[in-house]
Design goal:
By secondary structure, this protein is mainly α. The chain is built from ten helices and no strands. It is globular and about 55 Å long.
C-alpha cells in the first residue's frame, strides 16, 4: 500500500455496498416514475388505508412512535455530525470535517427539495394529491434514517453486526411511518431508497477527502477504535536487538 491511499477495504465490502446502493437507486427511479404516472391511483397505497387511519393510542402505537424517532433529523443528523467530527479529529483532517458537514447540509436540502417539488399530500389529509403544496413524498423520516445511519456505520468502518443493525433500523423507520399513518407506502419506499443512495455518496465523499495522508488514515483510525472495543489489539512488535555494521547496511539484524 502506498502513502496517500486509503486502506484496502475487507474482501467483498465494495461489492456489498454496490449490492445495496445499486438496487436502491433503481427502486428510487421506479417509485418516482410510478408516482408521477399514476399519482393517487396507486393500488398499494390506497389499499393500506382503505379502512381508515390506524388508531393513535395503545401499546403498538407507542412502540412505532419510539422507532420512528430514529428518523428525526436532529437525532440522526447529530449522530452523523459527531461521527464526522470524531473521525476528522482522529485523522487530524479539516477536509474530512468539511466534507461531512457539506454532505449533511446537502443531503437534507436534496430531501426537502424533492418534497417541495412533488408536493404530495399525506394520508392524514384523506386524499392523495400531487403538487398540492404538501411534503409527503419522499418520506423525510425514512430518508434521514437510511442516509445518516448507514453513513455513520460506513465512515466509522463499523463491524458487520453494527452495519446490519443500522440498515435494519432504517427499514423499521420506513415501516413505522406507514404503520402510524404518516406516509403512503410509496413515500416510505422512495425515502428509504433515497437515503441509502445519499448515505453511500456521503461515505464516498468523506473517504475521498481523507486523501492524501498517512496510509489509510481514516480506515486505520476507525479500525483501531473497533479493535480496542472488541479487545483485539495488535500484537506488540518483537524487540529488534542489536544491529551489526554489516547488518545495518543490508537492513537485516546481525549477529553479535
Amino acid at each position: 500500500m502506498t502513502v496517500g491511499q486509503d486502506a484496502d477495504p475487507p474482501a467483498g465490502e465494495g461489492g456489498r455496498r454496490l449490492w445495496v446502493a445499486g438496487p436502491a437507486g433503481v427502486l428510487l427511479v421506479l417509485t418516482v416514475g410510478d408516482v408521477l404516472v399514476f399519482g393517487g391511483a396507486h393500488t398499494g397505497d390506497q389499499v393500506v388505508f382503505r379502512d381508515g387511519l390506524p388508531p393513535r393510542s395503545g401499546v403498538w402505537h407507542a412502540f412505532w412512535r419510539v422507532l420512528v424517532t430514529g428518523g428525526q433529523y436532529w437525532l440522526v443528523g447529530s449522530a452523523a455530525a459527531l461521527a464526522t467530527a470524531w473521525l476528522a479529529w482522529r485523522a487530524r483532517s479539516l477536509p474530512v470535517l468539511l466534507a461531512g458537514g457539506s454532505w449533511l447540509v446537502g443531503s437534507e436540502l436534496v430531501i426537502r427539495a424533492l418534497q417541495l417539488c412533488f408536493g404530495r399530500t399525506a394520508p392524514l389529509r384523506e386524499v392523495d394529491l400531487l403538487f398540492a403544496g404538501a411534503v409527503s413524498f419522499p418520506s423525510g423520516h425514512a430518508a434521514n434514517a437510511a442516509a445518516c445511519l448507514t453513513f455513520v456505520a460506513g465512515v466509522l468502518s463499523a463491524p458487520s453486526w453494527l452495519r446490519t443493525a443500522a440498515h435494519a433500523w432504517a427499514v423499521l423507520v420506513a415501516i413505522a411511518v406507514v404503520t402510524l399513518g404518516y406516509h403512503w407506502p410509496s413515500d416510505a419506499i422512495a425515502g428509504w431508497a433515497l437515503g441509502i443512495v445519499l448515505g453511500q455518496v456521503g461515505r464516498h465523499l468523506v473517504r475521498r477527502s481523507g486523501r492524501p495522508g498517512p496510509r489509510g488514515v481514516l480506515s486505520s483510525s476507525a479500525g483501531r477504535f473497533w479493535r480496542a472495543r472488541s479487545g483485539r489489539r495488535r500484537r506488540p512488535r518483537a524487540s529488534r536487538g542489536r544491529w551489526s555494521a554489516s547488518g545495518r547496511d543490508r537492513g537485516t539484524p546481525g549477529s553479535r
